[in-house]
Hints:
The structure holds two protein chains of two kinds. Helix content of chain A is 52%, strand content 16%. By secondary structure, chain A is of the alpha/beta class. An eight-stranded mixed beta sheet of chain A has the order 3-4-2-5-1-6-7-8, with helices on both faces. In chain A, helix 1 (17-30) crosses helix 2, helix 1 packs across helix 11 and helix 2 crosses helix 11. Chain B is built from 15 helices and nine strands. The interface between A and B is large, with 63 and 70 residues.
Amino acid sequence: MFDSPLVLVSGKGGVGKSAVAAAIALxxxxxxxxxxxxxxxxxxxxxxxxxxxxxxxFKPTEVRPGLSALVVDRAKAMMEYLQIQIGIPALTAFAPxxxxxxxxxxxxxxxxxxxxxxxxxxxxxxxxYDLVVAxxxxxxxxxxxxxxxxxxxxxxxxxxxLEQAAWMREILEERTTxxxxxxxxxxxxxxxxxxxxxxxxxxxxxxxxxxxxxxxxVLSTDRESLPSGRAGDAARLxxxxxxxxxxxxxxxxxxxxxxYLFGVVTPTEVAVRLSEKLGASV
Amino acid sequence: MTRAVLVTGGGxxxxxxxxxxxxxxxxxNGVRSLVVTxxxxxxxxxxxxxxxxxxxxxxxxxxxxxxxxxxxAGASWAGVxxxxxxxxxxxxxxxxPFFAAASNHFPASQSFAAAEEATRLVEARAWELxxxxxxxxxxxxxxxxxPAQMTDLVGGRLLRWLTGGRLPGRRFFFDxxxxxxxxxxxxxxxxxxxxxxxxxxxxxxxTYDGVAHxxxxxxxxxxxxxxxxxxxxxxxxxxxxVRFFRELPEIAxxxxxxxxxxxxxxxxxxxxxxxxxxxxxxNLSRWxxxxxRQQDLxxxxxGRYRTDLTKIPWRPEPPTDIDGLxxxxxxxxxxxxxxxxxxxGDPHTPARS
Lengths: 282, 353
């Protein structure tokens, strides 16, 4: 299911996308692959917790044999982008330029996105890992990251950044899977459908997969004869939730179901349990 | 005097539903109530009589005392600019490609727009209670910090960084020899991008006085509002709730209560199933473990932050009508949220504060 060298994991906030990204990384590592997990936005706290790692840095650190992780720090990513990818000499008025570039990243369309996703794609291009898994921005924003190369093309008539955008686009369109994590409820399903329609229309990635998270086990009991008391109450709640989930699973068929984890507390345990379910598909 | 209740919290925890439920319950107790929401789910919008609801408050078709308004945060950010910039500058700003990008990258602009809209409705003094639901993408504490961040943005912080310290005149950007930054910028980005950004920022700066003044008014209204933080017993939304207690002293008043939505009965923990089929016993044991997990997380939070708690039982489906919304408040357990809405305690006396 994840046979491309880059998997971007996105989804509506709160559906467990960091957990799923960590689980994919752990499953691939167990299968003997060299894996890099990347937190694309924020401080990477969620991904680190799920991997059972110390706070992440821009420099990859090994969290398990064969599994490294990093967080994209925008300022550092920008330096690396400008020096290595764009080829600005290190000594050329660097501080003011980086500062000006940071302003651009806050205002101009696509600059921040291209620097962030540029780091991810760069790691794929370097070929040091068999699989790069990114805990990507939520589905509301993922489109602007995938479109960043195109947007740059419309905005910037010439310049080195354009040449750079071309090969980035190639990796996304030919070697990248976008995994959208959802849970079978109204808002996540609607948002996932919208994201899918958008991504498909613009054919921004090679493959699109839907992962349904927190899927309840099926309770096939006679609904008419539920006992009174707690067991009956728990069954009634379960059956109602199950029906609600069945409806939204019908609306959004998934390529893969991940189970609701009853009573599991620590983020690391969540990721490990999900990675066991993922096992064969990675 | 209008009582304002600000409902905040991470994404997907049920803020909008709770906001609507509070307004419905207050309205049924004779309080003239308005709920201000941002982008509600379809079914909830239907329950509020969505067909006719827009940015301006509309009365509910059947429910006396209940009004609802829905804010389009994107549209109102353009509205803010139109309020505070010269008409000619405003057109140029809104049409500028950087404008859309800045609003996407700068969630504070959307929060500011929503907060401004909500403040306007509170200031109208047409309602005794205004319940304000916060935007889903931001939701948490960022809603309260938005006015200050917005002032900072239009105040030229970015512009000063771009030019290295001083606020320039327009001519500055055409003087290539003076600015190596711009020369390199041209190589990398082509000639026009930095100039375009600078022009945009200079236009934006003309709104500074208006925005700064308004920000103060918004902050003062938000400080007077009773803040509620909504969460579920899950790590991600709890992290957002915790930020309120760690970062709030500098920003506004302490939240009046934390609401845990979707809670399970604690008497399911370790419960004996009685004489039932194996499948049902196993099901109770699973949900009992889940109830235990919730209790541990809520207990840890309550022990650390010592705040009033309200628990709302887990319902499989969000309420689809007004009665369902009222029922949600009736099922709440713990701190009485309606005490924040019905000032004075007598439901038949108009709210005062």
